[in-house]
Amino acid sequence: MKRHPLCLPGVWLLATSGLVAGCDNQLSLEHRLTSLRMVLRSPMESELGSPTNPVTPATLKFDIEALDEKGKTFPFDGNLSAYLIAGGNRLSLVDPCSSATPTGDPTILKTIGMRSGKVTGEQVPLSLPPVFGRIAINLEEPQSQALGSTPAIYFPNPTIARLMKPLDVTAGNASYCSPYLSRQVTVDTTATAAGKLIVSSVFQNGLAVSDTSSPDYGSMYVFTFSQPSAQIQIGTILDSMSGAIAKFNGMTQLANPVLIPTSSFRPDLLPAPVELDAAHRPTGGPTSANNQWLTKSIAAPVRVTGIVCDVVADSNRASNWEKYNTVVINQVDSDPKSSTGCGGVNLSYDSGLGTRFNVKLPGKGFGGFDPVQYAGQEATFIGMLQNGASKSGKTLFWTVAVRNTGDVCLLPKAQCPK
After folding, report:
1. pLDDT the model gives residue 344
2. How confident is the model at residue 117 (pLDDT cuts 50, 70, 90)?
3. Rounded-to-integer distance, Cα 299 and Cα 303, Å
4. Does residue 385 contact residue 172 with C-beta atoms inside 8 Å?
5. What does the alpha-carbon distance between residue 243 and residue 256 come to, in Å, rounded to a whole number?
6. Which residues pair with 358 in a beta bridge?
7. How far apart are CA 196 and CA 147, in angstroms?
8. 153 strand-pairing partners
9. Helix (H, G, I), strand (E, B) or coil at 159
10. Any idea of the CA torsion for 96, 99, 100, 104, to the nearest 10 degrees?
11. What is the CA radius of gyration of the chain?
12. Is the pTM of this model over 0.70?
């Protein structure tokens, strides 16, 4: 590398023969690679979209020029790394829910070879799962840490289904692992133009939002920490919601949300509750067809009918009612103490016993329900489908979270509202 001296003005050397113009303090500037200039070829810079007019290019084509400390071409030979950036972070291109162990840096989109300080006609793919919303492509030369970047590229924001549908629906962790964990997202669009974002459940510290045009993977839980605004009711239409993708006990949720409600109230558009009948009990382990089917309805309104299980004789059931207001619903037989139909909610699939649905109520006596009084009787509950998983991932829990007293019917199913 060439070094060029820089003289600090005002500092002179005094010689016996007179005043000698000179420097007693010189700074050396290293001639080196300092930055990378990207020149877009397709799409052009004027074709990168905007928040209100997003684009969907499948690839990005560009030229690269290495620049020195004076902004002139630098004859660099070496490799550059390209990264996909969103929210100031490099995005992983490896599904974190996959059991495969990634090799190398999972955030590197492409390694690009540069010769004599120039690259022409380079391309990177943009049809990737993490590509939605505002993104950019960054370049870095690892040794000098010289950087380059595209302007922001605006893709359509994700739908609820885009965020909730597993990349591998057959994986054992499909119901509780999100590939977009910690990603900041805005949801302001639906699966079809006719769809609406509607509040489908409201709780003391959260709510659920459903896409009326997406029957599968179309609902999402939103954790509000405190009581949602009085403006938010079941049936309220939202213009948008934004926040960070998070997890709680295995359930994907939107945390630290910003909700923009409209003045529209349309309870007639609420999705009909999905029937959790005996044929869809979560048997067979995490990869079973029934668990895959249930994953499609996480956070959606559901209905379950069955025999109320005893909460006295079994210590697991007693503890879950005492601590969490949760009861088990028997859809196998009419015995409230049945080991197969009621079991204990913490039993593992490894036990070989059938599994069942649970119901969580907001409090003791809610809707006139007392499991001691109604044990052995048929009841129907409506609510939001909540999923959970044991630490090992071998046991999945499916719970109907009751929302209001209208969700509780303590009569035979034939006598309950449709």
Report:
1. 55
2. very high
3. 12
4. no
5. 5
6. 328, 399
7. 42
8. 135
9. coil
10. 30
11. 30
12. yes
